[in-house]
Known about the structure:
CATH topology of chain A: Ubiquitin-like (UB roll)
Oligomer: heterodimer
Number of strands of chain A: 5
Order of helices and strands of chain A: EEHEEE
Largest sheet of chain A: 5 strands, mixed
CATH superfamily of chain A: Beta-grasp domain
Low-confidence stretches of chain B: none
Mean pLDDT of chain A: 95
CATH superfamily of chain B: NAD(P)-binding Rossmann-like Domain
CATH class of chain A: Alpha Beta
Number of helices of chain A: 1
Strand order of the largest sheet of chain B: 3-2-1-4-5-7-6
Radius of gyration of chain B: 16 Å
Radius of gyration of chain A: 12 Å
Distance between the termini of chain A: 45 Å
Amino acid sequence: MDKKIEVNKEKIDWEENMTVDRILKIMNYTFKMIVVKVNGELVKKDNYNTKIIPEGSDVQVIHLIAGG
Amino acid sequence: MEELEKQFFSKHDPKILPVLRNSVVGIAGAGGLGSSVAVSLARVGVGKLIITDFDKIEPPDLNRQQYFVEQIGKLKVEALLENLKRINPFSEYKIHNVKIGENNISEIFGKVDILVEAFDEAGMKKMLIESWICRFPKKPIIVASGLAGFGKNEKIHIRKIGSLYICGDEESEVKIGISPMAPRVAVVANMQANLVLELLLKEKNSNG
């Protein structure tokens, strides 16, 4: 079985030393304003290229859209 | 007044009402979302609402916000306070004419049971969510994202990520030709308000 993670409930292949930036690239997420939670923990923008995502992680990317 | 108060709440479920009367809900923003959330929560009898905004009412706001023509030029929080008191004078309303940021979020919203995010700008939404989660990781925050335009009722949903809830379609950007319009903004606002009730009542039930 390939090693996976879930991004917004979609299963994708896990890679060694995977970062948030890498996930956003794979998912083709180009949204400007996002909030990222990995296994329930908030990851701030400064850590998108340093925080390593473990195998089996649940990653949630929330796209914030103007309007209210 | 006492007799009116009794009658006002006479249709409320006697098991639910005391929970709501003892609840405090924060509403960050008093525009299309915030004014509609506040009106619904006031009608239902939530005991205390804490509401912030830093804008004045302008004519285009009336296309979707719960204000009146004669209130144009007033501070939104002050106009909303007037309107809420006319709807339900038996709840407590605390208003703040401020811009919420890292520096004052705890002071203003620290004691609420649930926070409703009702900002317009995406950057403000992000700031509020991140500040809230860092300070109050277990307290619910209900965010709105994706509500512009009309129709597409079936696209609107709720996503739960721990104590963070997102209401909206998570895709409809505001751009030329797709502006926030009263029905869809009110649908999302009332989804937020409806979720507030669900969480308040669930929490109470699980605590006995």
